[in-house]
Amino acid sequence: MGNLDRLVRNKDAGIAFSALLLFVGFSLSSESFLSAYNLFNISRIIAFSAFVALAQAVVLVAGGMNLSVGAIGGLATIATGYGIQVLGLPGWLAGSLALAIGCTAGLLNGLIITRLKINSFVTTLATLFVFTGLVHGFSEGYAYTEIPRGFTFLGRQKFLGLSNLFWVMALVLLVTHYMFRHTVFGRRLLATGGNLEAARLSGINTNRMLLSSHILSGGLAALAAVLWVSRMGSAQPATGKDWLITSFAVAIVGGTGLAGGSISALGLLMGAFIIVLIKNGLVLLEANVYYEQAFLGSIILLAVVVSRLRDIYDERLER
What we know:
globular, two-stranded antiparallel ribbon, mainly alpha, 14 helices, disordered N terminus, 2 strands, single chain, 319 residues
């Protein structure tokens, strides 16, 4: 009974078990699922989905949300393409410019939230439209296609059968795990999301934590955009339009608490694994792709229900 209790209460174990079941199920259902190309493609999409989710999760963990994740990604995408094609910057410098713009956009979100005391939902909903308007106004709807081949090394090449993006993502998640488990900054961010008033009374500068979480979110969204340009070989102004549901779906399925104070690097990886496997499996099984959004919404709802049931179970055990 004790082992069962630990399994039920361990979010990562449950998510990993679900991912394993999906992997086995799709492997048995489709002959092409385990092909070298499909596994390479899955690893590439998992990496990208995890980056987008992490950009959302670092704000969720502090008790907020960032609805402008995709719009910031769009800004960073256009900045990368403009820097390379128009300004003639080397790829690494154009990517750095995009990261700076992402962090600046996150800084703007954070300043409005902390200085003007406007909640994150309203603030980031407004900046979503502002940033999206800037993307289309600046690019005029045209893509930047003159991306040098060397810039696509991370997005299109592989190592040990898996995309280079996957290994970059694994490194970033390891850093994330270390930050939230072994650094003062990470623990203060968790405390801020867990109980804002208690964190403030304990001496934590909660405004600084909230501001930092949005800067970090903007930077991670920009990083995802740069890697997306590396994968596609072009900078499309439409980039980021479908990031919002992915960012919430992967983060929530991965065990990031909607109320803040909880995050797991392994959970984010497994969450991305589950979402991508379902999308990929639906295509291989020739399911009706028009129902994809319904599937994703159902998965998010199921994850929230399971999380709530686990909380109820924990409360009963404590009694």
